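Students often ask what a holo structure prediction actually looks like on paper. The answer is less mysterious than it sounds. You provide the chain, you provide the ligand, and the output is a string of C-alpha cells encoding the 3D arrangement of the protein together with heme C.
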Amino acid sequence: MSSSSLNKIMTLLSCLILLGCSQVLALDNFASGFDLPEDATYVGSETCLDCHEEVGDLYAHTPHSVELAPMVPGGQADACEACHGPGSIHSEEEDIDTIINVDMMRAMDSSQKDAMCLQCHTENHVGWAGGPHQGSEISCSDCHADLVHFEVQAKPAADFRNESEFCIQCHTSEVGDFRMPFRHRVLEDQISCNDCHDPHNGFPTDTWNGINDTCLKCHTEMAGPFVFEHDGVQSEDCTVCHKPHGSTHDKMLVTDGNTLCLQCHYESEFNSDENWTLARVPHGGMLGTEGRCYDCHNEIHGSNVAPSFRDQ
Ligand code: HEC
Ligand code: HEC
Ligand code: HEC
Ligand code: HEC
Ligand code: HEC
Ligand code: HEC
Ligand code: HEC
Ligand code: HEC
Ligand code: HEC
Ligand code: HEC
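The corresponding C-alpha cells follow.
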C-alpha cells in the first residue's frame, strides 16, 4: 500500500474517532491523488499572490485568473489551489513539500494531466475519452500554452495564421496529403482541420455514421434520402471510396476506375465470362472501351431515377 493511501485510511480513522472529518477529508478529487499534509485546507488563491505575484500576473488575462476565481464545480478550490491543492500549511511554512510541487507535477502521467483540467472542464469534453488525443503523450495544456504558466510542447493557436497551421506543427506528416492534386484546400485556408476533427472529441457516433455526418455537413447533396439507395454508400463510410485529406485520383477517390467498384462488385465470373457479367447484366460490350464504372453509373451516391444509378 502506498504511503498516501495509508495516510488516507489513518485520516479516516482519526476523523471517525474525533468527528472532525469534514475539513480534513474534503480534498478535491484531483488533489487527493497526491501526498499532502492531512490537515491542509483551502485558503483561497488570493493568498498565493502575496508571495507568487509574478505567477498571478501570467494568469491575469485569462479566465483562470485569481481575480475571476474559477471554482472546481462541487469543490472548494479556486484558481491556483485547483491545480496545486490546499495551500494553508504551505502559505505559513513556505515549504515545497506541503504543496503539489513541480516534481510531483512532472511525474504525472497524461491522464493525470488531463484530470487537472477536466476537474473544471466537464461539459464540452464529454467525448475526450474517445477522442483523438486522449491517451497520447500530449494533454490539454500542450495545446493551450497561452492559458498556463509553464512550458509545454506546442505553441498556442493564437501564434498561427489559422487553426490548421496550429495542428500541422505536430502533424507534419499530414501535409503531403494536402498537397496532392485532388484535395481539401486546407493549406489554402479554405477549410480547416477543425471543420472535420474536434481535437477534444472523436467523430460523432450517435447517428448514421459519425464520419459521414461530418462530410454531409457540407456535402448535403450526398445525404439523400434517395428512392434507390446504394448500399455501398449507405452502409459504409465515405472513406471506403474517398481519401478525406487528398489523393492523386480525381474526386479524391481512394483508387481510380473500375478497381474502386470491384473492391465490392467483383464476381467470380467476371474474368472468365466473355460477357463480363455483373449482377446478371453482361458488361462485355460496355467495358471494352476506357469507360469507368461511374461514367455510366454516374449517380453513384444514390438515385431517384434508376436502381442502377444511371441518369438515363
Ligand atoms: C508566504 C509566502 C508564500 C505563500 C503565501 C505561498 N507560497 Fe508558494 N512558495 C513560497 C516559497 C518561498 C517557495 C519556494 C520554496 C523553495 O524553493 O524552497 C514556494 C514554492 C511554491 C511552489 C513550487 C514548488 C517547487 O516544486 O518548486 C508552488 C507550486 C507554490 N509555491 C504554490 C503556492 C500556492 C498555490 C500558494 C497559494 C495557496 C502559495 N504557493 C502560497 C512562498 C509562498
Ligand atoms: C492549470 C493548473 C495550474 C494552475 C491554475 C496553476 N498552476 Fe502553478 N503549476 C502548474 C504546473 C503543472 C506546474 C509545474 C510545471 C512544470 O514545471 O513542469 C506549476 C508550477 C508552479 C510553480 C513553480 C514554477 C514557477 O513557475 O515558479 C509555482 C510557484 C506555481 N506553479 C504557482 C502557482 C500559482 C501562484 C498559481 C495561481 C496564480 C498557479 N500556480 C496556478 C499548474 C498550475
Ligand atoms: C478551477 C477550474 C479550472 C481549471 C482547473 C481549468 N480551467 Fe480552463 N476555464 C475555467 C473557466 C471557469 C473558464 C471560462 C469559462 C469557459 O470557457 O468554460 C475556462 C476557460 C478555458 C478555456 C477557454 C479560454 C477562452 O479564452 O475562451 C480554455 C482553452 C481552458 N480553460 C483550458 C484549460 C486547460 C488547458 C486547463 C488545464 C491546464 C484548464 N483550463 C484548467 C476553469 C478552469
Ligand atoms: C490537440 C490540441 C488540443 C488539445 C489536446 C486540447 N485542446 Fe482545447 N482547444 C484546442 C483548439 C484548437 C481550440 C479552439 C480555440 C482556440 O483557438 O484556442 C480549443 C478550445 C478549447 C476550449 C474553448 C472552447 C470550448 O470547447 O469550450 C476549452 C475550454 C478547451 N479547449 C479546453 C481543453 C481541455 C480541458 C483539454 C484537455 C481535456 C483540451 N482543451 C485539449 C486544441 C486542443
Ligand atoms: C502538441 C502536438 C499536437 C498538436 C498541436 C495536435 N496534435 Fe493531433 N495528435 C498528436 C499526437 C501525439 C497524437 C497521437 C497519435 C499520433 O502520434 O499521431 C495525435 C493524434 C491525432 C489524431 C488521431 C490520429 C490517429 O491515428 O487516429 C487526429 C485526428 C488529430 N491528432 C488531429 C489533430 C488536430 C485536428 C489538431 C489541431 C486542432 C491537432 N491534432 C493538434 C499531437 C498533436
Ligand atoms: C474533410 C475532412 C477532414 C479534414 C479537413 C481533415 N481531416 Fe484528418 N481525417 C479525416 C477523416 C475522415 C479521417 C479518417 C478517420 C478514420 O478513418 O477513422 C482523418 C484522419 C486523420 C488522421 C489519422 C491518420 C491518417 O492520416 O489517417 C490525422 C492525424 C488527421 N486526420 C489529422 C488532420 C489534420 C492535422 C488536419 C488539418 C491539417 C486534418 N486532419 C484535416 C477528415 C479530415
Ligand atoms: C461507393 C463509392 C463511393 C462512396 C461510398 C462515396 N462516394 Fe463520393 N464519389 C464516388 C465517385 C465514383 C465519385 C466521382 C463521380 C464522378 O466523377 O462522376 C464521387 C464524387 C464525390 C464528390 C464530388 C461530386 C462532384 O460533383 O464533383 C463528392 C463531394 C463526394 N463524392 C462526396 C461523398 C460523400 C460525402 C460520401 C459519404 C456520404 C461519399 N462521397 C461516398 C464514389 C463514392
Ligand atoms: C467544411 C466543409 C466540408 C467538409 C466538412 C467536407 N468537405 Fe469535401 N469539399 C468541401 C469543399 C469546399 C470542396 C471543394 C474543394 C475545392 O474545389 O477547392 C470539397 C470537395 C470534395 C470532393 C471533390 C474533390 C474534387 O476533386 O473535386 C470530395 C470527393 C469531397 N469533398 C469529399 C469529402 C468527404 C469524404 C468529407 C468527409 C470526410 C468531406 N468532403 C468533408 C468542403 C467540405
Ligand atoms: C463498399 C462496397 C461497395 C462499393 C465500393 C461499391 N458498391 Fe455498388 N453496391 C454495393 C452493395 C452492397 C449493393 C447492393 C446490391 C448488392 O447486394 O449487390 C450495391 C449496389 C450497386 C448497384 C445496383 C445493383 C443492384 O443489383 O441493385 C450498382 C449499379 C452499383 N452498386 C454500382 C457500383 C459502382 C459503379 C461502384 C463504384 C463507383 C460501386 N457500386 C461501389 C456495395 C458496393
Ligand atoms: C458503358 C456503360 C457501363 C459501364 C462502363 C458499366 N456499366 Fe454496369 N450497367 C450498365 C447498364 C446499361 C446496366 C443495365 C442496367 C441499366 O440499364 O441501367 C448495368 C448494370 C449494372 C449492375 C446491375 C444493376 C441492376 O440494376 O441490376 C451492376 C451491379 C453494375 N452494372 C456494375 C458495374 C460495375 C461495377 C462497373 C465497372 C466495372 C460497371 N457496371 C460498368 C452500364 C455500364
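The longest helix spans residues 3-18.
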